[in-house]
Amino acid sequence: MCVLGLGLIGGSLLRDLTAAGIPAFGWNRSPETVTAASDEGYDVSGDLPATLARAEREDALVVLGVPVPALPDMLAAVARHAPSCGITDVTSVKGEVLRLVGRYGLSGRFVGGHPMAGTADSGWDATTEGLFRDAVWVVTTDGAAGEDATGYTAGESTGESAGGPAPADVEPWLRVWRRVIDMAVAVGAAVIPARARKHDKAVARVSHLTHVLAEALAVTADQGGALSLSLAASSFRDATRVAGTEPGLVRAMCENNRDALVTALDETIELLNGARRDLADPDHDISGLVEAGHDARLRYEARAGRSGSGQANRPFILLRPGTPGWLDQLHYAESIGAQIGLLEV
Known about the structure:
Helix content is about 50%, strand content about 10%. It is α/β, with parallel strands linked by helices. It has two domains: about 1-195 and about 315-340, Rossmann fold (3-Layer(aba) Sandwich), CATH 3.40.50.720; about 200-285, Orthogonal Bundle (6-phosphogluconate dehydrogenase C-terminal fold).
């Protein structure tokens, strides 16, 4: 594995891969990060062409661990120095990344990834072993047979079935797809498949919107002055935790998922406006919002294993990639948020 970018996610991945005994090396632009990681015994370089040339020689899976704005330079370098390597990424948007990958002619060996893990901190100093244990790792499926970069299948546009075996020219992509899944499983993550379009709509609601609301809550509290900040306790702390994320990273994730985020934000604003109207009228109450929110939270806790046994309650589906009917299974897994595992063909 070759990890490009050793911030929180990329650096933690390098730690976990190394701890699992998987040959892994990395690159980072910052000399300070290279020195710090090397001093801890990790195989890290600040020479991007040399790192990618090594990846090409060793048939490494290249993991793009840099923010979206840095991807064009990374993709150009990969296309030049590692022309046959499989590629994945760890960014929180998938549609924009898929478009960039296509621009550089790399779609046939790219599989998008998004580990749903992290903290508000960033950089090598924030990295840790075990960050991905029991976390969801989204692995995209846009390169599967009959699919294009928009996330639609041929069956959706023509009415034809997408359940047949994968044609031979999809096999190189399937090999990369299997490697990405194996990597995620090796660091303890639960793999959930999704097309880029579906992924971006989902994370707009559960991740990117959360960042926007956290920023707004933090600003509102701060405008209340010193007393408000002194009285802030655990509910404020938890609700605004991600406002501590480096602003450039927040902008990159939100601004590269504008359409889906605006839709989610509009729905939230409508709920807030309804709450405001009810609070402003002494004859009304906010029981509807409070009860609906409480029920929604319980559904999340049940699925995520935050209650009862502590075990996640996601469905689990075993797939044999490339066999008849596997795409139908894959899309069904996406539709119910199922974790997947792979069987040998």
